[in-house]
Write a structure and sequence with these properties.
- The complex is a heterodimer of chains A (273) and B (262).
- Chain A is built from ten helices and ten strands.
- Chain A has 273 residues and is of the alpha/beta class.
- Chain A has one domain: P-loop containing nucleotide triphosphate hydrolases (Rossmann fold).
- In chain A, the strands form two sheets. Chain A has a six-stranded mixed β-sheet, sandwiched between helices. In chain A, strands 2-1-4-5 form a four-stranded antiparallel β-sheet, covered by helices on one side.
- The longest helix of chain A has 18 residues.
- The radius of gyration of chain A is 19 Å and the shape is globular.
- Chain B has 262 residues and is mostly helical.
- Helix content of chain B is 77%, strand content 0%.
- Chain B has ten helices and no strands.
- Chain B starts with a helix and ends in an 8-residue tail after the last helix.
- In chain B, 46% of the residues are buried.
- Classes of the chains: A alpha/beta (273), B mainly alpha (262).
Chain lengths: 273, 262
């Protein structure tokens, strides 16, 4: 059931609610249309507590839109989202207190220092002993020396790491990471992946991860949800998705090949797996 | 609403004021220039010695209160624009911070900044032009509150427009008060307007505030009717502005504009 398309008709309401509580994330028949463009088309999936799930697909697949809907930044046209067993519409504050997110495409007020920016977010999330927490996170992500630097003087890779520190401020139970290593060089990306895995191991944080780097997804994610043109076209472990989409009996995951196969397909060739 | 989240918004803007010299320009520089120019003008008028008593006081009082009104509505919208320019909106609204907490925090920051301008202007008027607004303050405070409420109402409406139409409407942040100025009877009484414009002017809380101010300065009285009319209009406009803001915010969410604002 998990990772496969949910079918609410198969479950009586009480059982469905119990299922939503057991899953950290339950997305059911989510649709978002911008004008005449369907960005997310009847998408359903669930995420287990403690897993790292990858939301992958080519540009325009709907990954970022789904994350923004999960954060309440975009309202969907149809479908339901339950996080921690609660409805996002009804319990927005409680839900957002327990999760966090980052993307390299967001920014911080540039005149404020790294510490000042993070103190503002620490206040929003009511972090106990904010300076100690911020210092610890900055050290973990290797940017302790930048604490008193204005954000305007940071490189994009350094700003990305400040975003990651912001994402861990409230010890989130669920972390939404939208291409977290996009602006990082190879060494920094490796370091960030190690920190993420370490934090996930020690804190049991559930992570929903988007990336175009398929090797990274293979290394990081227990399970992936493959999207194309707003639809889920396959989900499962990296090897399961490889086999489903390539329709070959592979011994090892080959998500790069899968990605190229899906991204190279013309709209009229769209196939459901 | 959680006070600690409101205080986070205040902290964010306090840091910005400390780091950004533009805020000092807005808070102190322009009020000083404003009162200096009008102060010299009133000194010039005093030499003529043929003005009705109280006219000069009304003029300086109007300059100070209009400056306050302008600062309120501008700082509210500019405070929000700062989030937009720094692309900080996504992080803020993807956090537990609610829109009401954000707006409340912004209102508190705006009030504090406008008060600094008011104090600076009043001190200059007192020290250099011997115009002491402070003894009149008890009678002016109700009208100042009405002006502040209307300015915040406009700030909320303009912020709503910026949410929906992004920076295309950012010029409104600086200019909206100017549109209302001719009809607000800042420097002249309502009776001096052409008769066909008077009913329209009477629909503005600013008109009632400045009429009340003139009553207080010229005759030392308190015009309860102007205060009541201004307040009733304010309540109506405030409710409309909050509804309009929510409508614009939801429209922005629906169109995915919150994540694309630049």
């Amino acid at each position: 059931m998990v990772g496969a398309r949910l079918n609410a008709n198969l479950l009586v309401p009480d059982a469905f609610l119990a299922y939503c509580v057991a899953m950290l994330v339950t997305i059911e028949r989510l649709t978002k249309i911008f004008g005449r463009f369907t960005a997310v088309d009847d998408v359903s999936f669930a995420v287990h507590p403690g897993e790292i799930a990858g939301l992958v697909g080519p540009n325009g697949a709907g990954k970022t839109t789904i994350i923004h809907i999960m954060l309440g930044l975009i309202s969907p046209n149809a479908g339901t989202i339950r996080l921690f067993g609660k409805s996002l519409e009804a319990d927005r504050e409680q839900i957002l207190q327990r999760l966090n997110f980052t993307t390299p495409y967001m920014a911080f007020p540039v005149r404020l220092t790294v510490l000042e920016n993070l103190r503002v977010f620490a206040k929003i999330y009511k972090v106990h002993d904010p300076v100690a927490k911020i210092t610890e996170l900055l050290e973990q992500f290797g940017i302790g020396h930048l604490k008193n630097k204005p954000v305007s003087r940071l490189s994009s890779g350094e700003t990305t790491r400040v975003g990651l520190c912001k994402a861990f401020l409230n010890d989130p139970e669920l972390l939404l990471l939208d291409e977290p290593t996009a602006y990082l060089d190879l060494q920094a990306a490796l370091q960030v992946r190690e920190v993420l895995l370490e934090l996930q191991r020690t804190c049991g944080t559930t992570i929903l991860y988007t990336s175009h780097n398929m090797l990274e997804v293979q290394r990081m994610c227990n399970r992936i949800i493959f999207l194309n043109r707003g639809k889920v076209i396959a989900s499962g472990t990296p090897i399961e998705v490889t086999r489903k989409i390539l329709k070959e009996d592979r011994d090892a995951p080959a998500l790069d090949e899968v990605f190229i196969r899906v991204a190279g397909r013309q709209p009229h060739e769209a196939v459901s797996y | 609403m959680k006070p600690y989240r409101i205080s986070a918004v205040i902290l964010r803007h306090a840091y910005e004021v400390r780091r950004n010299a533009n805020h000092i320009t807005y808070m102190v520089y322009w009020p000083v220039v404003n009162i200096a120019v009008w102060g010299f003008f009133t000194l010039y008028l005093r030499h003529g010695d043929h003005l009705r008593p109280g006219v000069i006081s009304c003029l300086l009082g109007a300059v100070i209160l209009w400056g306050l009104f302008n600062a309120f509505q501008r700082d509210m919208a500019v405070g929000f624009l700062e989030e937009l320019w720094s692309r900080n909106l996504v992080s803020l609204f993807a956090s537990p911070l609610t829109i009401s907490e954000y707006v409340t925090g912004l209102i508190i920051v705006t009030v504090a900044k406008a008060m600094i301008g008011l104090i600076v202007e009043s001190l200059i008027a007192w020290l250099f032009y011997h115009y002491d607004i402070f003894p009149m303050l008890p009678k002016l405070i109700p009208f100042i509150l009405n002006l502040a409420l209307f300015a915040l109402t406009i700030g909320i409406a303009v912020t709503g427009l910026i949410f929906r139409y992004t920076t295309k409407f950012q010029a409104m942040a600086w200019s909206f008060a100017g549109i209302l100025m001719p009809l607000s009877c800042v420097f002249y009484p309502l009776s001096s307007l052409p008769s066909f414009l008077r009913p329209l002017a009477a629909t503005l809380p600013t008109t009632h505030a400045f009429e009340g101010m003139r009553e207080a300065i010229e005759r030392g009285g308190f015009s309860a009717s102007h205060f009541k009319s201004g307040f009733e209009l304010n309540v109506m406009y405030f409710i409309l502005a909050v509804g309009f803001f929510r409508w614009m915010f939801e429209a922005a969410r629906s169109r995915g504009l919150l994540v694309k604002m630049e």
